[in-house]
Design goal:
Length: 306
């Protein structure tokens, strides 16, 4: 880890420790579980959980869509629309960020809603794609479209070193675990009966693929032939999440395996291209369609929601 990243992580962890104590109202070592019973289902996450979008939205605005997997999961669990379901996921969120919602901020918001308590049974967390990981400060949020549509330079492995795409070289399970450790410990303490599940991302492109593509109008594909850097980043995030879950002793849900064969280059995509009627005609590009989210929700329900 670079010294810069180490300092950022230290500041973040210090802030979380302070937040945990502040939420409890007493020093963390003396804190006791709250009297609030908690909500059955709690979700913290980024746009792959929230799946809400508005072109003119500000980064500080928290957007959620009506067909997101958290909402569909809440219906399956019979808690939709009530206090037993708390979803604080926000499009654009990251584990650590200065421009939008962070994991800590979402945990605070959930706590204010009375989400955590002895009755909480499932806490699902989906984060990582929007974070800075390596030597350059580029995020996927700011680099995905420019890199994918740059036919002259592409998104090859060299794009990370050149600062044109998120630096996949800095992604690791150890760093991921350290970034979420304090919040995970907080969740375990205040919701001791809950399963804490780190939800992976769906398959955008098969692992190791060197090109990227997505459907246009459902009748053709745009192809970026040099996208190994982008795919490598997605592969490493998946591996880091799996490793981090093992290090922290929490569950990992393999969304990639559940959606395999239905990525952006497939004949039956479960993610949105550009005005592709096979997915959501006006859905967020590169994000799950309503059907894709239903597949994640159903699998989560089968494993954790019954």
């Amino acid at each position: 880890m670079t010294s810069k990243l180490a300092r950022r992580c230290a500041r973040w962890l210090g802030a979380v420790t302070t937040t945990v104590a502040a939420l409890a109202g007493v020093p963390a070592a003396q804190a006791a579980p709250p009297a609030a019973p908690g909500s059955t289902l709690v979700v913290l996450g980024d746009s792959f959980a929230a799946n809400g979008f508005r072109w003119e939205a500000d980064a500080k605005e928290c957007l959620r869509g009506p067909t997101s997997w958290p909402t569909q999961l809440s219906r399956l669990m019979g808690v939709v629309g009530g206090s037993d379901f708390v979803d604080v996921s926000c499009s654009g969120a990251a584990i650590e960020t200065d421009r939008g919602y962070s994991l800590v901020q979402e945990a605070i918001n959930a706590d204010k809603a009375g989400a955590f308590g002895p009755r909480t049974t499932l806490i699902a967390v989906q984060f990582g794609l929007n974070d800075v990981w390596g030597a350059n400060p580029t995020t996927l949020w700011t680099s995905l479209i420019p890199c994918v549509f740059n036919l002259a330079e592409g998104c090859g492995l060299e794009a990370a070193e050149q600062g044109r795409i998120t630096d996949y070289r800095g992604v690791s399970g150890a760093l991921y675990a350290e970034r979420i450790r304090a919040v995970v410990e907080y969740l375990r303490y205040y919701a001791p009966q809950a399963k804490v599940v780190l939800v992976g991302y769906p398959e955008l492109f098969p692992a190791g693929q060197s090109f990227a593509c997505f459907s246009v109008l459902g009748i053709g594909q745009y192809v970026q032939p040099r996208a190994a850097g982008l795919v490598e980043y997605l592969d490493r995030i998946d591996a880091a999440q799996r490793d981090a879950a093992a290090r922290l002793g929490i569950e990992f849900f393999d969304s990639r395996a559940r959606t395999a064969g239905h990525g952006l280059c497939s004949e039956q995509p479960w993610l949105n291209g550009a005005l592709d009627p096979r997915a959501d005609l006006v859905g967020i590009p590169f994000h799950p369609s309503a059907h894709g989210d239903s597949m994640i929700a159903e699998a989560l329900y089968e494993r954790y929601g019954k």
